[in-house]
Write a structure and sequence with these properties.
4% strand; mainly alpha; single chain
Length: 206
């Protein structure tokens, strides 16, 4: 008897599920429509939550892109400032070397344009040849030393002037990159640390 009762009750439940899926008229219309509205409302809620989650991801990505852009601008700006500092320091250093070069050139002029003639036992000073004694040998060596220092000073000025030209090209390249990076986010002021400039330390030497 119990099995008969179960067998009689189970088919209607199965038919209800089938009719619910197939839209059969055997189910009470009001309950069917109410259940469908609940299902559709649940689907709409899930869809809205999914869209909101996507919007949240977009906002996060936008913030990350903004932070990355700001960091990139700060990095390029720091490199540009470093390039400016190197140019300033080496400009002052080249000025010191040029001052040294001029000092050696002035010493040569004070010696009367003496040109040493090594390994001959003689030297010419203003076109006058004299017999070389010990003082003349000492003078010749002094002149050789002055000319050697003058030549070395010229070589240093030439080398560091070329290096300064390279640094200025690097500075111009960073300036261009900074201008391009700033155009991505107009109005943004890069972070700047105000430290004492190392280049200023050698100003008293000039």
């Amino acid at each position: 008897m119990l099995s008969a009762t179960i067998s009689t009750l189970s088919p209607p439940a199965h038919n209800f599920e089938c009719s619910l899926r197939e839209g059969s008229s055997n189910v009470i219309p009001s309950k069917h429509e109410h259940l469908l509205r609940i299902i559709y409302a649940g689907h709409d809620l899930e869809r809205q939550m999914y869209i909101l989650s996507l919007d949240g991801i977009d906002v996060n990505d936008t913030e990350q892109d903004k932070l990355f852009t700001m960091y990139s601008i700060d990095t390029v700006h720091s490199s540009y400032l470093a390039a400016q500092s190197r140019v300033r320091q080496y400009t002052q250093f080249v000025a010191i070397l040029q001052h040294s070069e001029c000092a050696w050139a002035q010493r040569i002029q004070e010696m009367g344009h003496g040109v040493p003639e090594p390994n001959t036992g003689r030297m010419s000073v203003d076109g006058i040849k004299e017999q070389v004694d010990e003082q003349d040998i000492l003078l010749a060596r002094t002149i050789e030393t002055v000319f050697a220092n003058y030549a070395a000073a010229q070589d240093r000025v030439r080398q560091y002037t070329q290096f300064l030209t390279i640094l200025k090209s690097e500075e111009d390249a960073w300036a261009e990159r900074f201008q391009e990076a700033s155009s991505v986010m107009p109005g943004y002021e890069p972070v700047r640390c105000d430290h004492p400039r190392k280049g200023d330390l050698i100003k008293p030497l000039l």
